[in-house]
Specification:
The chain is of the alpha+beta class and 220 residues long. The chain has a single domain (59-219), classed as Nuclear Transport Factor 2, Chain: A (Roll), CATH 3.10.450.240. The chain has helices at 3-26, 44-56, 60-63, 71-82, 88-108, 111-114, 120-135, and strands at 139-158, 163-179, 185-205, 214-219. β3 (185-205) and β4 (214-219) form a beta hairpin.
Length: 220
């Protein structure tokens, strides 16, 4: 066998070895491999469908607090349409703080502090109670413990005026005693925590520059 033929056979053997070696490596891939940029995404249709369901479905910020499809849910959606930055959960967080501030302002007779957050009717009602207490020489000593329960019970929206109303039920905890002019306790027990249930309705013109809500109605 001459030399050129021997060299050709050797090179052919090396080529076959390299091809078999390459196929062995390519056939045993493990782990995640990023597909080529021009390769079709096999999970594309299912991802798109999932996105469409979320995008077109109920707003969690609303249905977490009221039933989907209810009049209250529709009213809240209209409020968001009139003011896209409005968030139900954010509102309820603010309502929690407003409840403590207004309740304690009323109990302590500090009406000037809470007047901006009350409608005229509610302010007059609160002020009358405070004035009657002062005329009788009564003084309330109260401390706020916290809000035990808070829930959104109703919502309404007037497209003609853009006024939104949200009704919230609070169950608060506080200590309170009432003393007469001589300092004698006529109501309550020092340090004893009592629960108080209130149903308050807040209103605001959606989209207005003033971000504050006003307390427009109270009940139990």
């Amino acid at each position: 066998m001459n030399s050129p033929l021997l060299q050709l056979l050797v090179l052919a053997g090396i080529a076959v070895f390299l091809i078999l070696r390459l196929k062995s490596v390519l056939g045993t891939r493990e782990g995640f491999e990023k597909p080529p940029a021009d390769a079709p995404a096999t999970a594309g249709p299912s991802r798109q469908r999932s996105f469409e369901v979320i995008e077109g479905g109920p707003d969690p910020d609303i249905v977490d607090h009221v039933p989907a499809g209810s009049p209250a849910a529709e009213a809240l959606a209209q409020m968001k349409g009139a003011e896209p930055s409005f968030g139900v959960s954010d509102f309820l967080g603010g309502a929690r703080g407003a409840y403590e501030m207004i309740l304690m302002g009323f109990e302590r007779g500090d009406m000037a502090e809470i007047k901006p957050f009350l409608s005229d009717d509610v302010y007059e009602s609160f002020a009358e109670v405070v004035e009657n207490r002062e005329q009788q020489g009564l003084k309330v000593e109260a401390e706020f413990v916290g809000v035990r329960e808070l829930s959104l019970t109703d919502a309404e929206f007037d497209p003609a005026t853009s006024i939104g109303e949200v009704t919230v039920k609070f169950i608060g905890e506080m200590t309170s005693v009432v003393r007469d002019a001589g300092g004698t306790i006529v109501e309550g027990e020092p340090g004893k925590i009592k629960r108080q249930k209130d149903v308050w309705t807040f209103a605001r013109t959606m989209g207005a520059d003033d971000p504050n809500w006003q307390l427009v109605a109270t009940g139990e």
